[in-house]
Specification:
HMA_dom, Alpha-Beta Plaits, about 35% helix, metal ion binding, alpha+beta, Heavy-metal-associated_CS, four-stranded antiparallel beta sheet, Heavy-metal-associated domain-containing protein, HMA_dom_sf
Length: about 70
Amino acid sequence: MMVFRVPDMSCGGCVRAVQAALHAAAPGAEVRVDLQRREVSVMGAPDADCLARALRDAGFAGERLDA
């Protein structure tokens, strides 16, 4: 599982945009969003760099929290 902090995710529209971007980058992945903590957990995606790039392309800064 990979966890990203997305500090500029602040509303339901942001959540939908983040989920759509991550699902497009890793179609089989499970994406869970905690808006209050501004964190996104992704299970089943092989490439953290691809997910981080998808977040950036969608207009969100994403910092991976786990290693």
